[in-house]
Design goal:
homodimer; about 350 residues; alpha/beta; 6-stranded mixed beta sheet; 5-stranded mixed beta sheet; 11 helices; about 45% helix
Amino acid sequence: MVRIAVDAMGGDNAPGEIIKGAVDAASRREDIHVYLVGREDAVKQGLAACPNYPKARITVVPASEVIETEEPPVNAIRRKKDSSIVVGMNLVKKGEADAFVSAGNSGAILVGGQMIVGRIKGVERAPFGALIPTEQGVSLLLDSGANVDARASHLVQFAQMGSIYMEHVIGIEKPRVGIVNVGAEEEKGNALVKETFPLMKACPDINFTGSIEAREIPHGGADVIVCEAFTGNVILKLYEGTGAVLLSMVKKGLMTSLRSKIGALLVKPALKETMKKFDASQYGGAPLLGLKGLVVKTHGSAKAKEVSNSIIQCVTFKEQKINEKIKESLEAKEQAAET
Amino acid sequence: MVRIAVDAMGGDNAPGEIIKGAVDAASRREDIHVYLVGREDAVKQGLAACPNYPKARITVVPASEVIETEEPPVNAIRRKKDSSIVVGMNLVKKGEADAFVSAGNSGAILVGGQMIVGRIKGVERAPFGALIPTEQGVSLLLDSGANVDARASHLVQFAQMGSIYMEHVIGIEKPRVGIVNVGAEEEKGNALVKETFPLMKACPDINFTGSIEAREIPHGGADVIVCEAFTGNVILKLYEGTGAVLLSMVKKGLMTSLRSKIGALLVKPALKETMKKFDASQYGGAPLLGLKGLVVKTHGSAKAKEVSNSIIQCVTFKEQKINEKIKESLEAKEQAAET
């Protein structure tokens, strides 16, 4: 049984969609036990609205406080001891849950992850890994938002952790690791990339394929896309923004004439199918890698489907013993460096 | 008369499309004189293929060498004295041309711009400004590729120069200046952004509107989008890559069933019209701002239309005395700092 604590109060659609997502996940998989963390009355009310939910595998864990989206994270984690994020993370810390899933305040999830759950020994920084859809399938972008101004050694660890995730959770053999750069040649880049490149090349147990230009990311040019979090956040958000704007322009374009409107009716099902492939929510949330337990951040705007996928994603993570593999990989690298 | 030197040998489609573009520009505007710089026989042959070109306003300037796309730029500029880039830039330096347009090696254009044409007094770095299409029109992204690891003071100058460009060349009154950031709040950002933010706020004669998240760029969230060149290059290339992949997926999607194929025929003209709005080439190339003369880089893959637009763009730049305005703006800021 995989035990997953879910923040019932986090995100734009909490608690309704979160609860629906949790119920959906527990209904789809019999090996999941969900702990719904949040204001007891609100959570119970939400559950009451779900007919026939698997009662034996959904437990309500009361937490009276809520960390709001724009609250400064460090203070919030310190002061709101009975918030859904702090209570949920403590379940992971105490070993009562294997994972924590939240659509709430990213900063608080990041700070709480480091302060409450804690990093695996040897991990210097815990990056957010975001799964982004590509023409060929899906890539892992990390760090997509946790550590701006990260250092070269951090980026190398991101590559190691990301490779393990893509191989064992997503199932891509020998995932290709690329470092985000402004050109394909080794001599290109800013100071950070130039320092990181040779370290990546020398790192055992990753399949480093060199620089990746941003243009190649949507084409699926690498499976693990490594960068510091400022660049990663820009990539993630621009990806979403460009997609949204282009699709809205296409839709508007289809409504400009009677001819195109009739055509739109005919192409709608095919277009919908195509766009599904470019929908990140099918892959669930962004794991915060390198912690002693699994912490997953889903979009603030996540609806039931994405919440459910984020919860189910945790099962593979646990089954594949990702954290043990991360530990082994870091130790192997240390040993390689010593010899 | 605006005199524009054009690199006939640079880019994937040189010399054919470059020459066609130059002829088109000179035919469209009677106040343009084009100097086509390149291998004499090749250029003359190309011109011979253009019927009725305005002979009096197109001059061939021989240059026997070509700087290739992947050549290391500093060496290339130093050694290939008779290359089309060096010869063309020397025309600008000597005051025989007002501007130089090239689709060639970006690094060589950047190095040549600084070493041959030279920076305006007071300009610390010359950024590439790329015009990117948005839902609302067009924004200027700078630095889109010249100075990785730029400093805060450089970014402030980019904002000043970009504002002048957008106001006087593109015609946007009081252009909104945004700094690329990972959140909208002032306390967010990496070390560079945190240092730059207050300097931007204190800068006279720019309309600083604060941070812009990458998600807002395609929505047209700012007219002048400021960042250092690593981030800028990632934005520019991801913008192009995401657009290309999404459109190719839409096209493929339209071909999946008989029903959608029939629909595709009906929606095609409307879609084409929509996509034109998202086509950067209509705006011409990326100016290298802050030099004593105008240097414009067009896409390596530019065809005649984009080359022609890049050339015509130079006329407004000259007429609006952009370089004089940049000088004045920098001096005004210096005086403001002194008092």
